[in-house]
Each structure stands twice: as structure tokens, then as C-alpha cells.
Design a protein that fits this description.
Elements: H1 3-21, E1 25-36, E2 53-66, E3 72-80, H2 86-90, E4 93-99, H3 103-109, E5 113-118, E6 125-127, E7 139-144, E8 151-155
Parallel strand pairs: 3-5
Antiparallel strand pairs: 1-2, 1-4, 2-3, 4-5, 6-8, 7-8
Length: 159
């Protein structure tokens, strides 16, 4: 096979592998606004009780971790039951977004992305000693032997 054909197949393979990752975008940021989309008609059938509706989430993107590079404030649509508390909004977290492909749906929701998931903030402690050797009741200890000394990272119950 000639070099040009090999290069073409290599590029084709790289593009295919990117597509297989999906169209998910993962960003680090803060939730600025989370409010009901009063402009979207309730899709709940008559005489039924529906516990979820469309909400608008405005996210201040600090960094794109994976996928299409995003920056600034973006608007995402999410189906949820109730409002989020102020503490939840203040925390820096990872958001998993998916582009809204259907132009009519983008117009209806006034958003460019679906908010698929948001991380819960977690706190881990890292020491150069095994937490068990210190008598700590650590949940799921992760070790890194890439440096000197070995590092032990863990969560404490209730932290």
C-alpha cells in the first residue's frame, strides 16, 4: 500500500474513533442559573401527574475536559423535578452535555445542549501514609506509585 493510502486510512480511523466516543462534551464549570422553562408547553397528558419538566441551566464554563471546545456561558436543557439549592449551584463540577441536533427542538427549548449529568462534588484527602496505618476508616483508597513517596488518596465517611 502506498504512503498516501496509508495516511488516508489513518486519518479515517482517527475520525471514526472520535465519532465512536459520541457527541458528549464534558466541561468543568459552575451552574449560574437553573429555572423552569415556562415558555415550553407541559407535555404531560391530561389527567396525569408528571413529576418532571424542562428546566433551563446556564453554565459558566471554566474548561472543556472532553469534546468540542466550549467557553463562556452556555444554555442547556434538562428534565428535572424541582429547583436546585444555592449550595449546589455554587460548587464547581463536571457537566456532561450533548448537543441538541434538531433545530426545532433548539428553538423550542432556547438551548443548544441537553444537560445529561452533573457531578456531585467529592472531597478526597491525600497522604504519604496508608490511612489504615493511621487508624482511619477510609472509603476506597487510591494509590499512586508514580512519585516518591507513594501517595494514598481516600474519602472519610461523612466528608
Amino acid at each position: 500500500m502506498n504512503p498516501a493510502a496509508k495516511m488516508f486510512l489513518l486519518i479515517l480511523g482517527l475520525l471514526a474513533s472520535q465519532a465512536s466516543v459520541g457527541s458528549h462534551i464534558v466541561v468543568l464549570g459552575k451552574l449560574v442559573t437553573n429555572e423552569t422553562m415556562s415558555y415550553v408547553k407541559d407535555e404531560c397528558p391530561d389527567n396525569d401527574i408528571c413529576l418532571r419538566s424542562w428546566w433551563k441551566s446556564v453554565i459558566q464554563v471554566e474548561k472543556t475536559v472532553q469534546g468540542k471546545n466550549l467557553s463562556g456561558r452556555i444554555t442547556a436543557a434538562v428534565m428535572q423535578h424541582t429547583s436546585l439549592n444555592a449550595r449546589y449551584k455554587k460548587a464547581v463540577r463536571l457537566f456532561v452535555l450533548t448537543p441538541i441536533e434538531d433545530p426545532d427542538q433548539r428553538v423550542k427549548l432556547r438551548a443548544d445542549y441537553y444537560l445529561e449529568e452533573a457531578s456531585e462534588p467529592q472531597q478526597m484527602f491525600c497522604l504519604s501514609r496508608d490511612p489504615k496505618a493511621l487508624g482511619l476508616n477510609a472509603e476506597g483508597t487510591y494509590t499512586s506509585a508514580t512519585g516518591d513517596p507513594m501517595i494514598y488518596c481516600f474519602r472519610l465517611p461523612g466528608s
